[in-house]
Amino acid sequence: MLLLITLVTFGIFFGLPKLAGQTTDQLAASYVGKAPTQEAIEATKERLGLDKPIVVQYGNYLKGIVAGEDFKAGPVTDHCPAPCLGYSFRTSQPVLPTLMDRAPATLGLAVGAAVVWLIAGVSTGVVSALKRGSIWDRTAMVIALGGVSLPIYFTGLVSLALFSYKLGIFPGGGSYVGITEDPVKWFESLVLPWVTLAFLYAAMYARLTRAGMLETMNEDYIRTARAKGLPEKTVITRHALRASLTPILTVFGLDFGLLIGGAVLTENTFSIQGLGQLAISSIGTGDLPMVLGVTTLAAAFIVVINLIVDLLYAVIDPRVRLG
Amino acid sequence: MTSTGGNKTVSTSDTAAAGTTVPGAAETSADAAAPRPVRDGEMLLEVDNLGKHFPVTAGLLRRQVAAVKAVDGVSFSVRKGETLGLVGESGCGKSTTGRMIMRLLDPSFGKITFEGEDITRMSQGRLRPLRRDLQMIFQDPYSSLNPRKTVGAIVGAPFRLQNIATENGVKKAVQEILELVGLNPEHYNRYPHEFSGGQRQRIGIARTLALKPKLIVADEPVSALDVSVQAQVVNLLEDLQDELDLTYVVIAHDLSVVRHISDRVAVMYLGKIVEIADRNDLYERPMHPYTNALLSAVPVPDPSERGNRQRIRLQGDVPSPLDPPPACRFHTRCWKAQDICKQVEPPLIELSHGHQAACHFPENTTVSATDEVAKAAVAPGAAPAGETDAETGE
Amino acid sequence: MTDTTPAAGPATGAGEAPTAFLEVRDLKIHFPTDDGLVKSVDGLSFQLEKGRTLGIVGESGSGKSVTSLGVLGLHNRHNANVSGEIWLDGQELVGASPGDVRRLRGRKMAMIFQDPLSSMHPFYTVGAQIIEAYRVHNDVSKQVARKHAIDMLGRVGIPKPDKRVDDYPHQFSGGMRQRAMIAMALSCDPELLIADEPTTALDVTVQAQILDLIRDLQEEFNSAVIMITHDLGVVAELSDDILVMYAGRCAEYASVEDAFHKPLHPYTWGLLGSMPRLDRERTERLMPIKGTPPSLINVPQGCAFNPRCAYKDLNGDKSTTVRPELVEAVPGHKVACHLPLEKKQEIWESEIRPKL
């Protein structure tokens, strides 16, 4: 798994400058200032390590992660301890603390949204499946279709305009406040992003759950559960829902892992200083170490989340455990 | 161990007495219900010590940790024009055997000879012309037909695949076959879902007949069908055999269907053949305890027999083919088992004319595998007693 | 026990309390679909006493499984039209509320299904599923229920039940799973047990074990058993009475001896002639019924069996125009066929029986 992450990283390390059609000279030049002299460019290249061959650069980068790295920031030499993801080209700040700085916002956004969409999506799906063909089912599925098709920057802006500016219900929307500063304000500022983000996913999960439930309700073991004389409520929750949840869990692992690496659109729309925003701005300025840092972190998240999902799978389905 | 041969039925023999072909005395008398004339013709299919082990892997490196011994050394042969029935419970390896004969699965060891040619390791390319002669009928008439193709396309596909020129075009040829299997030739352009289960099985049979094969392996051909329809298909298979001079290997778990359709029957248990004999011999004088148990377990549609039948009830389940019991594989469930059954594997040898069983304590006979082994040890290559008897019977 | 032959009970009118333990009267279960009305069960009546076994025989689509689901109230309530009466121990079930029927399910009437693997929940242990079944109807602690579950597993012949109780269904073999299903069905000591093709998915030696088990348990519990199957051998071994279903209706209803030794319906003859038998000399040819079972949307006019019947011409055009009603041809032996009784008996003795 780690191998995979480094490979992905390497691909980006390698491909990004080339794709941008930039020579290393040009890249270095952009960090020197106005009217760069060739001398200054060379100096910057050396300082940033861009003068070495790509393989060496990569090697140094890997070494930094494992052993830490010394970095010449002007006259002083900084030491960056063990899991060192390098220094930003632009700000000369170490990457890792910057990431750690940004992560809570994204994490808060993702976890909150996930809770909202799981509750809303799964329950809508279950009710739709049980009342298949009813008005409720049809309405829910039309809304879900809308939710899947509408882009976040649309729903996000609409909700901002409506709830924040016009109705003033969530005045904090659009200006993120850290949880350590003021938990209440933090909550207020995140309600709209949560709902917006969750709307999209809830729609998807409602459809997924509905399909899964419809399939499960036709299983023989549901018939058995009814034949035992179990109340319908128990049949649905203990027998049907548990079996339908496994495929949802798989998808959830992927979705949540991706989201935690940065909910780019939502963060932009609601100006939340999260990882997604960081990634966008770093790409814009060609800040390689920063982009790399975000990617590696996101990849690590996805891997970890999927590991957790696999373990959960074994808890839910005994056949996986022993098979 | 050699695969001992009966003179009429099994010819992979290397024992001395098995050379001549004789209509055994026992058989003619037993075959009261007008036996189908099985030509004394040449051997069509010979299977020698055939086996298939499926590896069980574990860990990241997919290391092999065990093997499922699905088929573990079976030998039999099929003459032109006869029907061999392969019976056994689920997991005994009968279907795997069928698939290996068809070369849909590669054998782990052993040898398959078809028309005198060794096809065990033949490449798929070289097998292709042979596919005309070797066809298979599958169990499920619902999933084995492509739902997007018309009946005409399904039955006609073999012609196109094998580039066979037909006199009046493929369509005419297909319609003739459809008529042969009792379908309306006008249904040429219909799709499988428009047919009932029995009719679909007829389409499946029509497909295998397209190229006038010599051997058809039928894997549970009727078990997915309703009782009344089963009988139609069984009769159809018999008619086609008479008409087209077909040879069948019928794989089934239903002992009554197998008795009805087969000339000879082989009983499998955990990857081995435990008994093989002419149909009447096997059903009237079963030697292996397992065969006895199987036969007594079949419910009989006659309420007056309810209390009268002597029942043999096997305990427990079939052991896992991952780790089959040593020596005689049946000893864990056998009521006659003795110490020797746990130590020495009984070879499959001929105990009376054309009747082979692998048991130390067989029923319905005076000789046993143990005696045979002892005899063979004294005089290697000598003809077993059963065969000498048959010779005198002639 | 009473030895009521099927038709012997007095003809009770609709609404009257029944005399038998289970009495089904003119049961109809119809499913409206886009293609038309599917008459899965179309006017079925039968009676069953405790301690006795009724075998319902039929091919796929004959309505035999829908009947059993209907008795338990397990049919899809949203899209089925049910009429008629089902009396279980003096209580009418068709008109009862779903909640009332639910409370009877599992306690007073239980069911075993064809495929024990798919019929058990893969995520719960065998024990948990039996405990659940027991605790729905009995207000006991988990420990007591668990002891009961182990006890039940032992009674159906599962070795080391105290260990196996914590296994999952996929860790059981096919036969063991079916035993566990039976243990679950019998956990509340039901008076009516419906077995829907209980041995079809099993090997023949295991089938024999399970049939023995059902027989033994019936004696022990003195329950009424409905055995639904397509296998005439299975019903011959277990049943007291036999009901042959065709296209949602009863074709023949008789004691097991009459049904096998003196059957009166051409369809029953056809079933008997279709199966190769181990207990007879091998016949040269089987005598199949021509054609295939009809679609339940499009049941043939007159007698549903007429397109496949070899004797329909003996009735003029009656077989294709008038639906034969189930009448008591011989005491205790009902049949729905236009052929005169003497003719039927003659055909059976001269044409059918010798060829079996």
Automatic annotation (TrEMBL), chain C:
Main localization, broad class: membrane
Gene3D superfamilies assigned: P-loop containing nucleotide triphosphate hydrolases
Gene Ontology MF annotations: ATP binding; ATP hydrolysis activity
ABC transporter domain segment(s): 24-272
Cell compartment(s), UniProt: Cell membrane
Keywords from the UniProt entry: ATP-binding, Cell membrane, Membrane, Nucleotide-binding, Transport
Membrane topology category: Peripheral membrane protein
Keyword Nucleotide-binding assigned: yes
GO cellular component term, pick one: plasma membrane
GO terms classed as biological process: peptide transport
Entry-linked NCBIfam families: oligo_HPY (TIGR01727)
Homology family: Belongs to the ABC transporter superfamily.
Listed name of the protein: ABC transporter ATP-binding protein
Species assigned in the record: Actinomadura montaniterrae
